[in-house]
Hints:
The protein is α/β, with parallel strands linked by helices and 341 residues long. It is 27% helix and 27% strand. It is globular, with a radius of gyration of 20 Å.
Amino acid sequence: xxxxxxxxxxxxxxxxxxxxxxxxxxxxxxxxxxxxxxxxxxxxxxxxxxxxxxxxxxxxxxxxxxxxxxxxxxxxxxxxxxxxxxxxxxxxxxxxxxxxxxxxxxxxxxxxxxxxxxxxxxxxxxxxxxxxxxxxxxxxxxxxxxxxxxxxxxxxxxxxxxxxxxxxxxxxxxxxxxxxxxxxxxxxxxxxxxxxxxxxxxxxxxxxxxxxxxxxxxxxxxxxxxxxxxxxxxxxxxxxxxxxxxxxxxxxxxxxxxxxxxxxxxxxxxxxxxxxxxxxxxxxxxxxxxxxxxxxxxxxxxxxxxxxxxxxxxxxxxxxxxxxxxxxxxxxxxxxxxxxx
Length: 341
Protein backbone atom coordinates (compact mmCIF):
# COMPACT_ATOMS: atom_id res chain seq x y z
CA UNK A 1 0.00 0.00 0.00
CA UNK A 2 1.44 3.35 -1.04
CA UNK A 3 1.13 5.81 1.87
CA UNK A 4 -0.47 9.21 1.48
CA UNK A 5 2.31 11.84 1.63
CA UNK A 6 1.71 14.91 3.78
CA UNK A 7 3.19 18.39 3.91
CA UNK A 8 2.58 20.08 7.26
CA UNK A 9 2.43 23.89 7.40
CA UNK A 10 2.82 25.08 10.99
CA UNK A 11 4.27 23.13 13.91
CA UNK A 12 2.43 24.55 16.91
CA UNK A 13 0.22 22.62 19.32
CA UNK A 14 -1.89 20.94 16.61
CA UNK A 15 1.10 20.44 14.33
CA UNK A 16 3.25 18.78 17.00
CA UNK A 17 0.35 16.49 17.90
CA UNK A 18 0.08 15.48 14.24
CA UNK A 19 3.82 14.78 14.03
CA UNK A 20 3.52 12.33 16.92
CA UNK A 21 0.45 10.61 15.52
CA UNK A 22 2.01 10.25 12.06
CA UNK A 23 5.53 9.28 13.16
CA UNK A 24 4.97 5.55 12.58
CA UNK A 25 1.68 5.60 10.64
CA UNK A 26 1.68 3.04 7.84
CA UNK A 27 -0.92 4.64 5.58
CA UNK A 28 -0.09 8.34 6.02
CA UNK A 29 3.50 9.56 5.82
CA UNK A 30 4.78 12.97 6.86
CA UNK A 31 7.15 14.11 4.12
CA UNK A 32 7.77 17.80 4.88
CA UNK A 33 7.27 20.50 7.50
CA UNK A 34 7.15 24.23 6.77
CA UNK A 35 7.68 26.25 9.95
CA UNK A 36 8.75 29.84 10.57
CA UNK A 37 10.88 28.94 13.63
CA UNK A 38 14.52 27.93 13.39
CA UNK A 39 15.08 24.20 12.69
CA UNK A 40 16.82 23.61 16.03
CA UNK A 41 13.87 25.15 17.87
CA UNK A 42 11.42 22.94 15.95
CA UNK A 43 13.46 19.83 16.74
CA UNK A 44 13.68 20.73 20.44
CA UNK A 45 9.94 21.29 20.85
CA UNK A 46 9.14 18.06 19.03
CA UNK A 47 11.43 16.21 21.45
CA UNK A 48 10.36 17.98 24.65
CA UNK A 49 6.72 19.05 24.98
CA UNK A 50 5.27 20.37 28.24
CA UNK A 51 1.79 18.98 27.48
CA UNK A 52 2.63 15.80 25.55
CA UNK A 53 5.79 14.84 27.41
CA UNK A 54 9.06 13.69 25.90
CA UNK A 55 8.84 12.26 22.40
CA UNK A 56 8.52 8.45 22.37
CA UNK A 57 10.32 8.39 19.01
CA UNK A 58 13.95 9.34 18.36
CA UNK A 59 14.37 12.66 16.53
CA UNK A 60 17.62 13.58 14.83
CA UNK A 61 18.52 16.59 12.74
CA UNK A 62 20.26 16.52 9.39
CA UNK A 63 21.01 19.18 6.81
CA UNK A 64 17.59 20.13 5.45
CA UNK A 65 15.39 18.10 7.69
CA UNK A 66 14.64 15.80 10.60
CA UNK A 67 14.73 12.07 11.01
CA UNK A 68 11.69 11.04 13.08
CA UNK A 69 11.29 7.40 14.07
CA UNK A 70 13.77 6.54 11.31
CA UNK A 71 11.88 8.46 8.60
CA UNK A 72 13.32 11.50 6.89
CA UNK A 73 11.14 14.62 6.92
CA UNK A 74 12.17 17.78 5.03
CA UNK A 75 12.12 20.88 7.24
CA UNK A 76 12.25 24.43 5.90
CA UNK A 77 11.08 27.97 6.58
CA UNK A 78 8.33 29.58 4.44
CA UNK A 79 9.61 30.76 1.05
CA UNK A 80 9.99 34.51 0.54
CA UNK A 81 7.17 34.37 -2.01
CA UNK A 82 4.49 31.82 -2.72
CA UNK A 83 4.38 28.32 -1.29
CA UNK A 84 6.80 25.38 -1.28
CA UNK A 85 7.14 23.25 -4.45
CA UNK A 86 4.96 20.46 -3.16
CA UNK A 87 5.14 18.48 -6.39
CA UNK A 88 8.93 18.29 -6.18
CA UNK A 89 8.68 17.25 -2.53
CA UNK A 90 6.28 14.43 -3.42
CA UNK A 91 3.52 15.89 -1.23
CA UNK A 92 -0.05 14.93 -2.06
CA UNK A 93 -1.98 16.64 0.77
CA UNK A 94 -1.02 19.87 2.55
CA UNK A 95 -2.19 20.19 6.16
CA UNK A 96 -2.47 23.87 7.07
CA UNK A 97 -2.03 24.02 10.86
CA UNK A 98 -0.83 27.57 11.48
CA UNK A 99 -4.19 28.65 12.90
CA UNK A 100 -4.12 31.75 10.70
CA UNK A 101 -7.15 32.84 8.68
CA UNK A 102 -6.33 31.91 5.09
CA UNK A 103 -8.09 33.16 1.98
CA UNK A 104 -9.27 30.82 -0.73
CA UNK A 105 -6.54 32.20 -2.99
CA UNK A 106 -3.83 31.37 -0.45
CA UNK A 107 -5.09 27.81 -0.10
CA UNK A 108 -5.44 27.28 -3.85
CA UNK A 109 -1.77 28.24 -4.22
CA UNK A 110 -0.89 24.90 -2.61
CA UNK A 111 -2.89 23.13 -5.30
CA UNK A 112 -1.13 25.10 -8.03
CA UNK A 113 2.20 24.01 -6.49
CA UNK A 114 1.33 20.34 -6.93
CA UNK A 115 -0.72 19.29 -3.91
CA UNK A 116 -3.91 17.44 -4.71
CA UNK A 117 -5.79 18.57 -1.59
CA UNK A 118 -5.49 21.00 1.33
CA UNK A 119 -6.75 20.20 4.85
CA UNK A 120 -7.25 23.29 6.99
CA UNK A 121 -6.99 22.81 10.78
CA UNK A 122 -9.23 25.78 11.58
CA UNK A 123 -12.34 27.46 10.23
CA UNK A 124 -11.75 28.97 6.80
CA UNK A 125 -11.71 32.72 6.15
CA UNK A 126 -13.58 32.02 2.91
CA UNK A 127 -15.82 29.04 2.13
CA UNK A 128 -13.85 25.80 1.58
CA UNK A 129 -15.21 23.00 -0.55
CA UNK A 130 -16.46 21.42 2.68
CA UNK A 131 -16.16 21.73 6.45
CA UNK A 132 -16.16 18.29 8.05
CA UNK A 133 -16.85 17.57 11.72
CA UNK A 134 -17.00 13.96 12.83
CA UNK A 135 -20.36 13.15 14.38
CA UNK A 136 -22.03 16.05 12.56
CA UNK A 137 -21.46 15.71 8.80
CA UNK A 138 -18.49 13.35 8.45
CA UNK A 139 -20.31 11.49 5.66
CA UNK A 140 -20.21 14.64 3.49
CA UNK A 141 -16.67 13.86 2.27
CA UNK A 142 -16.48 13.40 -1.50
CA UNK A 143 -13.58 12.69 -3.91
CA UNK A 144 -13.96 15.97 -5.82
CA UNK A 145 -13.41 18.17 -2.76
CA UNK A 146 -9.97 19.83 -2.81
CA UNK A 147 -10.01 22.36 0.04
CA UNK A 148 -11.32 20.90 3.28
CA UNK A 149 -11.66 22.40 6.76
CA UNK A 150 -11.91 20.38 9.98
CA UNK A 151 -13.47 23.36 11.77
CA UNK A 152 -12.38 24.36 15.27
CA UNK A 153 -11.56 22.24 18.30
CA UNK A 154 -14.59 23.65 20.14
CA UNK A 155 -16.94 22.96 17.21
CA UNK A 156 -15.69 19.36 17.09
CA UNK A 157 -16.60 18.94 20.76
CA UNK A 158 -19.93 20.77 20.78
CA UNK A 159 -21.21 19.79 17.33
CA UNK A 160 -21.96 16.10 17.90
CA UNK A 161 -23.75 16.85 21.19
CA UNK A 162 -25.83 19.59 19.59
CA UNK A 163 -26.75 17.35 16.68
CA UNK A 164 -27.99 14.55 18.94
CA UNK A 165 -29.99 16.84 21.22
CA UNK A 166 -31.48 18.71 18.25
CA UNK A 167 -32.53 15.58 16.38
CA UNK A 168 -33.77 13.65 19.43
CA UNK A 169 -35.30 16.33 21.67
CA UNK A 170 -35.51 19.48 19.55
CA UNK A 171 -33.74 22.77 20.24
CA UNK A 172 -35.39 26.19 19.99
CA UNK A 173 -32.29 28.09 21.10
CA UNK A 174 -28.75 27.19 22.22
CA UNK A 175 -25.88 29.04 23.86
CA UNK A 176 -22.45 27.49 24.19
CA UNK A 177 -19.69 28.71 26.44
CA UNK A 178 -16.29 27.16 25.93
CA UNK A 179 -14.30 27.29 29.15
CA UNK A 180 -10.93 27.14 27.45
CA UNK A 181 -7.37 26.51 28.60
CA UNK A 182 -5.09 29.39 27.64
CA UNK A 183 -3.35 29.23 24.27
CA UNK A 184 -0.54 31.05 22.49
CA UNK A 185 -2.87 33.80 21.28
CA UNK A 186 -2.76 35.07 24.89
CA UNK A 187 0.19 36.34 26.95
CA UNK A 188 1.89 35.21 30.15
CA UNK A 189 2.42 38.81 31.30
CA UNK A 190 0.43 41.97 30.71
CA UNK A 191 1.45 43.49 27.36
CA UNK A 192 -0.14 46.05 25.02
CA UNK A 193 -2.50 44.42 22.53
CA UNK A 194 -5.13 45.63 20.03
CA UNK A 195 -7.53 43.28 21.81
CA UNK A 196 -6.88 44.56 25.31
CA UNK A 197 -8.21 41.50 27.12
CA UNK A 198 -6.01 39.09 25.15
CA UNK A 199 -3.00 41.14 26.26
CA UNK A 200 -3.59 40.31 29.94
CA UNK A 201 -1.64 37.60 31.76
CA UNK A 202 -3.31 34.29 30.87
CA UNK A 203 -1.91 32.41 33.87
CA UNK A 204 -3.43 34.90 36.31
CA UNK A 205 -6.81 35.81 34.85
CA UNK A 206 -10.15 34.57 33.56
CA UNK A 207 -10.33 36.20 30.13
CA UNK A 208 -13.56 36.50 28.08
CA UNK A 209 -13.06 36.06 24.33
CA UNK A 210 -15.09 35.57 21.20
CA UNK A 211 -15.61 32.16 19.59
CA UNK A 212 -16.59 31.29 16.02
CA UNK A 213 -17.73 27.78 16.92
CA UNK A 214 -21.37 28.88 16.94
CA UNK A 215 -21.09 30.24 13.39
CA UNK A 216 -19.41 27.06 12.13
CA UNK A 217 -22.08 24.85 13.69
CA UNK A 218 -24.97 27.00 12.42
CA UNK A 219 -23.72 26.34 8.88
CA UNK A 220 -23.44 22.57 9.43
CA UNK A 221 -26.71 22.23 11.35
CA UNK A 222 -29.20 24.30 9.29
CA UNK A 223 -31.99 23.73 11.81
CA UNK A 224 -29.97 25.84 14.29
CA UNK A 225 -29.25 28.75 11.93
CA UNK A 226 -30.07 31.95 13.79
CA UNK A 227 -30.68 30.00 16.99
CA UNK A 228 -27.17 29.46 18.37
CA UNK A 229 -24.75 31.88 20.01
CA UNK A 230 -21.54 31.45 21.95
CA UNK A 231 -18.53 32.88 23.72
CA UNK A 232 -15.19 31.68 25.10
CA UNK A 233 -13.75 32.11 28.58
CA UNK A 234 -10.03 31.40 28.86
CA UNK A 235 -8.94 30.16 32.28
CA UNK A 236 -5.50 29.66 33.91
CA UNK A 237 -4.89 26.00 33.04
CA UNK A 238 -2.49 24.89 30.27
CA UNK A 239 -4.71 22.17 28.82
CA UNK A 240 -8.16 20.68 29.24
CA UNK A 241 -11.28 22.62 28.29
CA UNK A 242 -15.04 22.10 28.29
CA UNK A 243 -18.16 23.17 26.43
CA UNK A 244 -20.93 24.39 28.72
CA UNK A 245 -24.02 24.01 26.53
CA UNK A 246 -27.41 25.50 27.44
CA UNK A 247 -30.39 24.50 25.29
CA UNK A 248 -34.01 25.63 25.25
CA UNK A 249 -36.28 22.75 24.16
CA UNK A 250 -39.77 22.89 22.61
CA UNK A 251 -41.17 20.54 25.26
CA UNK A 252 -40.29 19.44 28.77
CA UNK A 253 -37.24 17.21 29.17
CA UNK A 254 -35.44 15.62 32.10
CA UNK A 255 -31.79 15.11 32.94
CA UNK A 256 -32.37 11.37 32.74
CA UNK A 257 -33.87 11.69 29.26
CA UNK A 258 -30.96 13.78 28.03
CA UNK A 259 -28.44 11.34 29.45
CA UNK A 260 -30.30 8.42 27.89
CA UNK A 261 -30.18 9.84 24.36
CA UNK A 262 -26.55 10.90 24.78
CA UNK A 263 -25.48 7.51 26.13
CA UNK A 264 -27.17 5.75 23.22
CA UNK A 265 -25.37 8.04 20.80
CA UNK A 266 -21.97 7.71 22.50
CA UNK A 267 -22.24 3.94 22.35
CA UNK A 268 -23.58 4.01 18.79
CA UNK A 269 -23.29 6.69 16.11
CA UNK A 270 -20.76 8.76 18.10
CA UNK A 271 -18.55 5.84 19.18
CA UNK A 272 -14.94 6.93 18.91
CA UNK A 273 -15.96 10.60 18.67
CA UNK A 274 -17.69 11.47 21.97
CA UNK A 275 -16.98 9.37 25.06
CA UNK A 276 -19.52 8.69 27.80
CA UNK A 277 -18.38 9.34 31.38
CA UNK A 278 -20.06 8.39 34.66
CA UNK A 279 -17.26 9.31 37.09
CA UNK A 280 -16.73 12.74 38.74
CA UNK A 281 -13.98 13.91 36.37
CA UNK A 282 -12.15 17.23 36.18
CA UNK A 283 -10.23 18.75 33.27
CA UNK A 284 -6.92 16.97 33.89
CA UNK A 285 -8.67 13.59 33.63
CA UNK A 286 -9.30 13.96 29.91
CA UNK A 287 -5.83 15.04 28.80
CA UNK A 288 -4.55 13.11 25.76
CA UNK A 289 -7.97 11.57 25.12
CA UNK A 290 -8.42 10.54 21.47
CA UNK A 291 -12.06 11.67 21.56
CA UNK A 292 -13.41 15.00 20.33
CA UNK A 293 -15.16 15.29 23.68
CA UNK A 294 -16.02 13.46 26.89
CA UNK A 295 -19.67 13.87 27.94
CA UNK A 296 -19.94 14.42 31.70
CA UNK A 297 -23.19 12.65 32.56
CA UNK A 298 -23.02 13.68 36.24
CA UNK A 299 -23.29 17.37 35.34
CA UNK A 300 -26.46 17.21 33.23
CA UNK A 301 -29.26 19.34 34.65
CA UNK A 302 -32.62 20.77 33.66
CA UNK A 303 -34.10 24.08 34.82
CA UNK A 304 -37.81 24.81 34.60
CA UNK A 305 -38.52 21.71 32.57
CA UNK A 306 -37.43 23.03 29.16
CA UNK A 307 -33.90 24.39 29.67
CA UNK A 308 -31.01 21.93 29.81
CA UNK A 309 -27.34 22.35 30.66
CA UNK A 310 -24.64 19.82 29.74
CA UNK A 311 -20.84 19.73 30.09
CA UNK A 312 -18.50 18.06 27.61
CA UNK A 313 -14.74 18.10 28.28
CA UNK A 314 -12.04 18.10 25.60
CA UNK A 315 -8.28 18.14 25.22
CA UNK A 316 -7.17 21.29 23.41
CA UNK A 317 -5.43 19.45 20.57
CA UNK A 318 -5.04 15.69 20.86
CA UNK A 319 -8.59 14.57 20.06
CA UNK A 320 -8.80 17.10 17.23
CA UNK A 321 -5.49 15.85 15.79
CA UNK A 322 -6.91 12.32 15.83
CA UNK A 323 -9.88 13.51 13.74
CA UNK A 324 -7.45 15.11 11.25
CA UNK A 325 -5.53 11.83 10.93
CA UNK A 326 -8.78 9.92 10.36
CA UNK A 327 -9.65 12.35 7.58
CA UNK A 328 -6.20 11.86 6.03
CA UNK A 329 -6.72 8.10 6.12
CA UNK A 330 -9.94 8.51 4.14
CA UNK A 331 -8.22 10.84 1.68
CA UNK A 332 -5.55 8.18 1.26
CA UNK A 333 -8.24 5.79 0.09
CA UNK A 334 -9.39 8.37 -2.47
CA UNK A 335 -5.80 8.87 -3.68
CA UNK A 336 -5.26 5.15 -4.20
CA UNK A 337 -8.56 4.82 -6.06
CA UNK A 338 -7.65 7.79 -8.30
CA UNK A 339 -4.22 6.34 -9.00
CA UNK A 340 -5.67 2.96 -9.88
CA UNK A 341 -8.32 4.44 -12.20
